[in-house]
Amino acid sequence: MRPIRQASLAARLANIPTGLRAASSAARRRALACAVAAGLTLATGAAHADDGTLTIGALLPMSGPNAEYGQTFGSGADLSIAHVNDDHILSKKLVLRYEDSQALPMQGVLGMNKLVNVYETPLVLTGFTGVSKAVAPIARRSRTVAVNGGGVGPDLAQLGPYFWNVIPLANAEVRAIIPYLINERKLKRFVLIYVDDPLGQSINQELAQDLPPAGGTLAASFAVPAGSQQFGGVVARVRDARPDLIFIASYGAQQSQIVKQLRDNGVMQQIASYSAFSIPAINALPEAKGALYTTQRFDWDAPDRLTQRFVADYKQRYGRKPTAYAANYYNAVRLFAILAASLEHDGKPVTGQNLLAARQRLQHFDLVGGSVSFDANGTVRAPIQVNQIDGAGGTVVSTIR
Questions:
Q1: Phi (first) and psi of residue 40, to 5 degrees
Q2: Using one digit for the tens of pLDDT, what is the confidence trace for 340-354?
Q3: How many domains does the chain have?
Q4: Do 265 and 163 fall within a single domain?
Q5: How far apart are CA 192 and CA 272, in angstroms?
Q6: Rg of the chain over all Cα atoms, to the nearest angstrom
Q7: Residue 70 and residue 60: Cα distance in Å, rounded?
Q8: How far from each other are the two terminal CA atoms of the chain, in whole angstroms?
Q9: Which domain CATH number covers 80?
């Protein structure tokens, strides 16, 4: 890629804020291992399009029971692509290539292989803990950056230098909300309903560890299978436990059913959750009104031009207020554009290896919601907010720094 003159770079950045310049289980395991191995033979991680475009990937659930997450994630990413191209931040048109992970690890590996081998994307957007853990070895060995804005399993912080998180992870979210619930809401007796997967198990462990020092107790925890939609037995056991608060650690259609069946069976205690509640289906669910959940802190009324533009254009394009998930994926694309523009300015190719070096060098980035930086493990450092569902887009009730 030819060097970009400094004056040309300055012209392209003039329209953005100053801060932006800176089968059986065994069979499935065998199939997953084979797919991973196949993806390591041809991967280069280079973005060398000769048609005037620069392509990055998006490995998101576009079908299946978690498709709403893919639509929400993609809404933010698509808007960011449009803004990057409208502002001519890069010398080439930025293109986002989607592959459907269905939120399943094996499908994720197949999609990641295609994005890395066929489209040679230097960066891939991903989400969901299981998918992220499955594709991380491909990212690491092919030196392709994978950016997660939706999965929150704590072990996502340990997937290597090419795996980045632009979302606080579940352990940080749980640690943030516990003092608020106990001290401000006076809710001390917790019951947990969690999906029996690595994410749910990690939240169970975090609550059991963090509640006693804060003055609370985990009275009971109930695991539910990932595909389950009927919770009558669990609801009865929750009622018998007489909690002050019910914490739900699930996602997608399952979490909606848990909330609905609790309320339909007369269990009316306070409900709380983590950022998986940050989707339109939950926020529009009458039975979820009043529920509390955590997300990364986003001030939609912030005066900076980037946030104002994001909120206004998101509402105009989609007819609703943005969510934290949409902002995360908008920011993931914006982060790529900042790093790629820096590489172009220095006359370097836009590869995963060079993107990593640029992120480590620049350190601070002005994105929607304010300036952010990354820990050494590639996870964003950012404040967390507690939101309450009100049926009208939600209300921020507390901010934890």
A1: -100, 0
A2: 999 999 999 999 999
A3: 2
A4: no
A5: 10
A6: 21
A7: 5
A8: 41
A9: 3.40.50.2300
225: tokens are 């299978």
Dihedral sign, Cα of residue 279, residue 285, residue 290, residue 292:
negative
Please give the angle made by the CA atoms of 74, 79 and 85, to the nearest 5 degrees.
125
Beta-bridged to residue 399, according to DSSP, are 385
* H or E stretch at 39: none
pLDDT in tens, 184-210: 999 999 999 999 988 899 999 999 999
245-249 and 189-195 strand pairing: parallel
Helix (H, G, I), strand (E, B) or coil at 102: coil
- Which pLDDT tens digit goes with each residue over 8-63? 444 444 444 434 333 344 444 544 454 444 444 344 444 544 679 999 999 999 99
Beta-carbon contacts of 15 under 8 Å, excluding residues fewer than 6 positions away, are 87, 88
How far CA 203 is from CA of 152, 182, 186, 248, 396, in Å, comes to 10, 17, 21, 10, 22
- According to the model, what pLDDT value does residue 369 have? 86
Residues 103 and 17 in one domain: yes
Task: Please return the burial class of 220, using the count of CB atoms within 10 Å of its CB with bins 0-12, 13-18 and 19+.
Answer: middle
Grouping H, G, I as helix, E, B as strand and the rest as coil, residue 207 is: helix
* Residue labelled with tokens 């999609």: 111
Distance from C-alpha of 90 to C-alpha of 180, rounded to nearest angstrom: 43
What is the rounded average pLDDT for all residues in the chain?
A: 89
> Quick one: 28 and 163 in the same domain?
yes
pLDDT digits (tens, 9 = 90+) for 85-99: 999 999 999 999 999
Beta bridge partners of 388: 292, 395
- Asked if the structure places residue 1 within a domain, the reply is no
Give the model confidence (pLDDT) of 102-117 as tens digits. Answer: 999 999 999 999 999 9
Surface-to-core class of residue 47, CB atoms within 10 Å of its CB (0-12 exposed, 13-18 middle, 19+ buried): buried
Strand 380-381's sheet: what is its strand order? 364-367, 370-374, 380-381
**Is residue 209 included in any domain, yes or no?**
yes
Q: What pLDDT score was predicted for residue 38?
A: 45
